[in-house]
What does this fold into?
Amino acid sequence: MSAVVLVVEFVPREGRARELEAALVGAVPAVHAEDGCVLYALHRDAAGTMVLVEKWESRDDLERHAGGLR
It folds into this structure.
């Protein structure tokens, strides 16, 4: 199987950017420890939009990760 890459854009509600960023950054160590995680990185622009870039070794790895979010 080939790698799976996701690019997820978050536009936080007014006044909630710090809360969102803290939640996403807080998840990074645990996600990096998951089997198949190649990359899980958060980026933020000056306007406050956040982009999460994820790379997984396979679709199965991504689906296992997503299943843990429910």
Q: What stands out?
A: The chain has one domain: 4-68. The CA atoms of residues 51 and 59 lie 20 Å apart.
